[in-house]
Structures are given as structure tokens and as C-alpha cells.
Amino acid sequence: MGYTDQRFNVNLSILFTELPLLERPAAAAAAGFTAVELWWPWIETPTPDRRELDALKKALDDAGTQLVGLNFYAGQLPGPDRGALSVPGEESERFRANIEVAADFAASVGCKALNALYGNRVDGVDPAVQDELALENLVLAARAADRIGAILLIEALNKPESPRYPLVSAPAAVEVVDKVNAATGLGNAKFLLDLYHLSMNGEDLPEVIENYTAKTGHVQIADNPGRGAPGTGDLDLEGLLDRLRKAGYEGWVGLEYKAGDRPSAESFEWLPRSQRAAN
Predict the structure, then answer these.
(1) Annotated catalytic, 155?
(2) Is 256 an annotated catalytic residue?
(3) What does the DSSP 8-state code read for residue 88?
(4) 182 phi and psi, to 5 degrees?
(5) Could you say which DSSP state residue 190 is in?
(6) How many whole angstroms from its chain centre is CA 269?
């Protein structure tokens, strides 16, 4: 069990970032991986030129890598932003403009999971107003995901690194998941369970797994402290993934960690090459 029985994918927005975007799928494939995920790659625009979308699709196809997770437009990420969908005004409009673009791109590459980051609290705006806007936009996103046979992911981040993000616990994120599903009747909103973020919040990880695996649509990992590769910190990631598997989780496990000062390809020694290709 543990690492031997998982379906791993590499997050190409945090690993292989020493390479241009279009070279990263091939680099992941050269390291032995067949599945990848991405934050929204064009942080300046929710509606990139068709040629840019086609070039990314070609890079994924040529490398033989399957895109298994894609973020909707989330503002400046990496950077100060943590999403756009609850931010009134221009950012919310940019999120809405991105919904069908992201869904159509996901459909074109067979990606079945779209992650919608909630967005930070804004000074001078009533949190209830932001939450109302968020639900409206998440309903639109859930319907777009359903149109392409995908799930909508809602993620809890960690308070130390994202102090203005309101979903900084598993229960807070799952509450939003439940509200979206109640509003749409589709049941395709799911929890993105990131073991690094939840550990940074000091949550009881075995209890989170026990309570929320049934509502979990995607898992991400990094060790803590440091957000490095498994084995660089104190988390028993192998044991936690074991618990997830025993609780019924059979989905993807995204490697969303920092390689540190070395090339990304050298950060996978914890995982035998024979276990990197998705089965």
C-alpha cells in the first residue's frame, strides 16, 4: 500500500517551472509520469488566444501526458491572489469570461476535474456579499463542468500563507461544496483535499480523511514544513495516503510540492520510477 497503490500526477505549475510551459509535459514524461495537472497557465488573461490553447494541447499530446486537473482563472497565482470568483467587479467578470474557455480546453484534452479557487476577502466588502457572488459563480462553473462530464473542485488553503482566504479548513470548504450541490442538483462539486494545506492549519488529518473522503474529488500532497517532496518534512504522507485508500479514495494524487534548489527531475527519488506512470 502507501505509495505503491496510488495514481500520481505532477503539478506543472509548481514543478518543472525552470522550463517554459510548453516543455514541461515532455519533462514530466521523461521523468516517468503520464499524468499532469495545471493552475491556470495564463495569469494575465482568462481568455488566451486560440493558438496558445492549441499549443498547450499539442505539448500535452506530443508528450503522451494526460491532463487530469486544471484550475479556472484565479488572478495572479502564483502571486498575491487566491482566486477571483468571490471578488466583486473586474475579477469576478474575468472568472466568468474564463468558465467556458477553461471547460472547453479541458474537454479538448479529456480533463475531468476543474478547480475553482474561492478568492481573498476584500477590504470594505461585506463577506456575505462575497459569499453570495461566490455561490453564483460556482453554480455557473459546476454547470460548465457538468457539460463536459467533469467535476468542480473546491479547495481549502492554509491560513498562515493565505490569511485573507476564507476557506482555511476542511469543514469550511466542504460546506461550500454542499451549498453548490444543493443549488445545482448536479452533485458534481467535490472537495480538493490538500494534505499540506490542512496540516499547515493544524487539522487532524486522519479525522479529515475519515469524515470527508466520500466528498473528495482530488488529493494534493507536499511535506510539511517546507512544502517539499515527501520525506523532506514531518508528515507521514505514505500512511495518510494509505488511510485515504482504505476509506475508498481511488482518484488522483497531485504532486504539488517545491523541488527546492535542484532541478525538478531530481526531486522524485522518493518514488520508484516503476510507480510514476498512472495505472
Answers:
(1) yes
(2) yes
(3) T
(4) -65, -35
(5) E
(6) 23
Round to whole Å and give the CA distance between 29 and 246.
Answer: 29
pLDDT tens by residue, 203-216: 999 999 999 999 99
55-86 pLDDT tens trace: 999 999 999 999 999 999 999 999 999 999 99
Alpha-carbon distance of 93 to 204, in angstroms, equals 37
Residue count of the chain: 279
Contact 112, 151 (CB under 8 A): yes
Dihedral of the alpha carbons of 167, 78, 54, 85, in degrees to the nearest 10: 30
Give the integer Cα–Cα distance in Å for 193 and 213.
Answer: 8
pLDDT in tens, 218-270: 999 999 999 999 999 999 999 999 999 999 999 999 999 999 999 999 999 99
Dihedral over Cα of 23, 25, 26, 32: its sign: positive
Q: Which of 37, 91, 203, 256 is catalytic?
A: 256
Give the pTM.
Answer: 0.98
Q: Which of 37, 91, 155, 203 is catalytic?
A: 155
